[in-house]
Amino acid sequence: MTAVMRAAGLGKRFGRRWALSECTVDIPAGRVVGLVGPNGAGKTTLLRLAVGQLQPTTGGIEVLGGRPAASAAQLSRVGYVAQSTPVYSRLTVEEHLMLGDRLNPRWCWKTARARLDSAGLDPRQRAGRLSGGQRAQLSLTLAVAKRPDLLVLDEPLSALDPLVRREFLQGLMESTVDAGVSVIVSSHVISDLERICDHLVILVASRVRLAGGIDELLASHRQLVGPRRDPATLPGAEVITERHTERQTTLLVRAHQPVDPAWTVSEVGLEDLVLAYMKADAANLSPMEMAR
Ligand SMILES: Nc1ncnc2c1ncn2[C@@H]1O[C@H](COP(=O)(O)OP(=O)(O)OP(=O)(O)O)[C@@H](O)[C@H]1O
């Protein structure tokens, strides 16, 4: 497997708090990867380590086969849109594009112009006067027009209106399919990720809780409903969440072998899967761990 990102024992500590711990994950190239997890789980920290804005406290991370931001060539291969979508407020939209052209050897004016047009951005407008959504559009345009091999997007969609969001996701899918760009995108909106991602990483409380191809993950998880019983006796399956009424037990499990047909078995959707892992960890962590 060619990995676009490879982290081994990666950790980042700010003061006494670990924002990311023991993160070991391989992300295959050519995929659109959704990064999900609760607020404060460490998603932004992982992405900032991947683009070289932060240095690891422990372990290591490789992106596109090299150390993040180790050279100009490496920088030019990674497009990054930070959560805050920073822009230079005194420069115009056009001046941002000119800067993009100067700084990026593979800059594509055609892509930049097409995105500006579809976003309805006036090239003469100062960036400081743009709305939050327009600023996000400008940041995304700059990241896409540099034609990176890897696009890293930290919650890029939250400021966009629903129509623009759909168009952006569509464009993102087309550019990944056409140009073979790998994408890592963090978001809280699972339905958006469901539309474009084929790979998922769930981070909870600074650790990778689950990672893999979405089809494969959905195929291995099931909801089981049956008469109330002790889930500890369930062979060949890892119980992720359990719910009991007086008479009935409902489990979400990761099954490693066919499940006992005595259970009523149903498939799970991506949202159920993500929520189950987030809920399971919230329930299992002690208050000390949660505060860590
Ligand atoms: N520069 C920093 N200094 C100190 N603590 C930080 C810093 N950056 C992040 N943290 C802490 O690290 C933890 C992880 O933060 P991070 O921003 O990576 O989470 P996140 O998963 O992206 O959250 P959200 O979904 O809310 O954006 C949090 O507890 C946060 O307070």
Automatic annotation (TrEMBL):
- What name has this protein been given in UniProt? ABC transporter ATP-binding protein
Q: Where is the ABC transporter domain?
A: 5-230
Q: Name one Pfam family in it.
A: ABC_tran
Q: What species is this protein from? A: Rhizocola hellebori
Superkingdom of this protein's organism = Bacteria
> Signal peptide: which range, if any?
none
Provide the alphabetized UniProt keywords: ATP-binding, Nucleotide-binding, Transport
Which one of the record's GO molecular function terms can you name?
ATP binding
PANTHER family according to UniProt: ABC TRANSPORTER, ATP-BINDING PROTEIN
Q: What is stated as this protein's family in its record?
A: Belongs to the ABC transporter superfamily.
